[in-house]
Amino acid sequence: MHVFYLHGFASSPRSSKAMFFAERLAARGVEMHCPDLNLPEFSTLTISRMLQQVERAIAVLPPDEVVLIGSSLGGLVAIEATARQVGGSNCPITKLVLLAPAVELEWERWTEIGPLGVEGWRREGQIEVFHYAHDQPRMLRFGFYEDAVRYHPGRRRLEQPLLVFQGRQDESVSPPIVQDFARAQPHATLHLLDDGHQLKNSLDFIWQETAAFLPRSPTPTP
């Protein structure tokens, strides 16, 4: 079993949630893969590039099933990667764990766009975004928006089992949108939590449910 963690927007493989999952999976003898989706440069970020990075990361692994854990924008990428089966027949994506997944990019919630909106972003060519991994602002080109509007993960219907966690007080992703997405999936389990977008107060519960959801893995050698 290969497990991938796909981090969120303006985040990194060193985020607190990524480290949380890496530590707990390691205790079960499972190495977690967490590609840096900012590379090669955050300013040129696109959904298409993120999908290509995931595909390349899976392609170099030995044949086995793949589980994707996607947080926020990483959840969007996980849904699209699964729908496209970017791992091919050698490494099929068999299960998803979605944490406050951005099943729709709600541009009106993007405070970074500012009062001039998408048209202002288009005219200026870029916007300033606070990047949490660098703890300082970074520029993001309008190409991100142009590419992102091509994707509609909320319309996807996936046959794979899905485990979805969504905070009721989420300030970035609308809980009703995630609820509608989960209801439309044949094999989705949704947990609505009294938490915000980061789900920081619910991580122990999330891990408990995720550990039971994952395929069986070898017991680590003492």
Count of discrete alpha- or pi-helical segments spanning 4 or more residues:
7
Strand content: 15-25%
What's the SSE pattern? Answer: EHEHEHEHEEHEHEH
What is the name of the CATH superfamily?
Alpha/Beta hydrolase fold, catalytic domain
List low-confidence stretches.
Answer: 218-222
Average of pLDDT: 94
Describe the structure.
With 222 residues, the protein is α/β, with parallel strands linked by helices. The protein has one domain (2-213): Rossmann fold (3-Layer(aba) Sandwich). 32% of the residues lie in helices and 20% in strands. It has helices at residues 16-27, 47-59, 73-84, 117-124, 143-148, 175-184, 203-213; strands at 2-6, 32-33, 66-71, 93-99, 126-131, 136-141, 162-167, 188-193. The protein has a 6-stranded parallel sheet with strand order 2-1-3-4-7-8, sandwiched between helices. Strands 5-6 form a two-stranded antiparallel sheet. A hairpin with a 4-residue loop joins β5 and β6 (136-141).
What is this structure's SSE topology?
Blueprint (H helix, E strand, L loop, with lengths): L1 E5 L9 H12 L4 E2 L13 H13 L6 E6 L1 H12 L8 E7 L17 H8 L1 E6 L4 E6 L1 H6 L13 E6 L7 H10 L3 E6 L9 H11 L9
Parallel strand pairs: 1-2, 1-3, 3-4, 4-7, 7-8
Antiparallel strand pairs: 5-6
Helix pairs in contact: 2-3
